Amino acid sequence: MNAPGKALLERTRQLRKLKWATAVSMAGTALFMGAALIMGDLSSARFWAVGALSILLVAGACIYLCRSVRCPGCGARWIWLMASKRHDDPAHWDMRCDACSVCGEDARGGRPPQRTR
Q1: Cys bridge to 100: 32, 39, 71, 96, which one at CB 3.0-4.6 A?
Q2: How confident is the model at residue 22 (pLDDT cuts 50, 70, 90)?
Q3: At residue 30, does pLDDT exceed 90?
Q4: How many domains would you assign to the chain?
Q5: Number of neighbouring beta carbons within 10 Å of residue 87
Q6: Does residue 112 form part of some domain?
């Protein structure tokens, strides 16, 4: 059974972005670990160049993820909302959400009925 947020990411075609960023982050981490195991000499310039490249890969993937996974209705950056908002904040989005926490769009174009006072 899928988590509601994963289903929301699939319906909005955002899941591929999450998978891509995860793969690039893992590749950057593996590159750094491989450089440490193979080169062994932490003082070499080649090791630090490979280390810098791996850090750029991981940081770039994280930035891409925070900026690209968005609500199709209002443009809210869901991963950024998950990372930057407190859990009790109504704007906090997490993988259990089945709709956008900002506008309420549920990826089928539907919005919850407006409450009247």
Answers
A1: 71
A2: very high
A3: yes
A4: 1
A5: 7
A6: no
97 belongs to a structural domain: no
pLDDT tens per residue, range 31-84: 988 888 887 766 778 888 888 999 999 999 999 998 998 888 888 888 888 777
Structure tokens at 95: 């993988």
| Contact between 69 and 77 (Cβ < 8 Å) | yes
Q: Is residue 28 part of a domain?
A: yes
**Mean residue pLDDT across the chain:** 78
Nearest to 36 by CA among 22, 60, 54, 62: 54
Contact 65, 79 (CB under 8 A): yes
Q: Identify whether 113 is part of a domain.
A: no
Which amino acid, one-letter code, is at 111? R
Instruction: Please name which of 1, 54, 3 lies closest in space to residue 29, comparing C-alpha atoms.
Output: 54
3-state SS track over 61-104 = HHHHHHHHCECCCCCCEHHHHHHHCCCCCCCCCCCCCCCCCCCC
